[in-house]
Prior knowledge:
The two termini are 25 Å apart. It is built from three helices and no strands. It is elongated. The relative contact order is 0.14. Helix 1 (2-10) packs antiparallel against helix 2 and helix 2 (13-34) packs antiparallel against helix 3 (42-66). Helices cover 84% and strands 0% of the residues. By secondary structure, it is mainly α.
Amino acid sequence: MVCWFYGNDSLPVSVSTPYVGAGPGFVSSLWGILLFNEIKGLKNYAILGSSLVLMVLGNLFIGISCS
């Protein structure tokens, strides 16, 4: 929650909202893979990997467009 307030204070709302919204999902996906082995199968890894890449690219493009 502190990061949410800090992000909203230092960045424009159009940039901070996607960053703060996507961050917990990204971190929890990595925890699920690395710590708990929640995903099995190469196809599932490919789907999750492509969705994480698209999420990072989307946030990167939003950040670039507002700067």
